[in-house]
User: What shape does this take?
Amino acid sequence: GGPARQITNSPESEDDATFSPDGKWIAFDSGKGGNQEIWLMPANGNYKKDAKQFSNQGGLTQVPTWSPDSRFIAYETNDAEGNSSIWMKSAKGGPSMQVATKCSTPNWSPDGKWIMFESDRSGKKSIYKIEAPSRIRMGKPVTFFAQVEVNHHKERQQIFEEAWKAVN
Assistant: This one.
């Protein structure tokens, strides 16, 4: 209840605001950092002082949705070619993990076991679901050894040609 109040004031697009289930945070997408990205701020915080950029996908990132336990945020990202995918990140920060491709508008199931999304994979729009990951999986590094031979003369010549072409 109570009167409505404006909590953001960027001249850039800001929308898709959503409260965390525990009521402590607000996630929204904003273009104020240059690209449309996900931002977080405390529900009782000050926009100018407390709003922090959460994602850094570098495309059109939007539609944040909280896991029911407020531990994760799933969101949609569109790359430069217009391909849309669903990513997930811990609400505390850290790395992001892609969880689905060729899809949009993520939503968690009430029990937190599934992430539902929209896709036209079958030729018409439909709702799909995937099991919601319980953690961010980053994989394990693979150790390898490689040798590289560099012809410094040819490399410098190529740099010169590219610079000359740009100047000319």
Q: What stands out?
A: Residues 152-167 form the longest helix (16 residues). The chain has a mean pLDDT of 91.
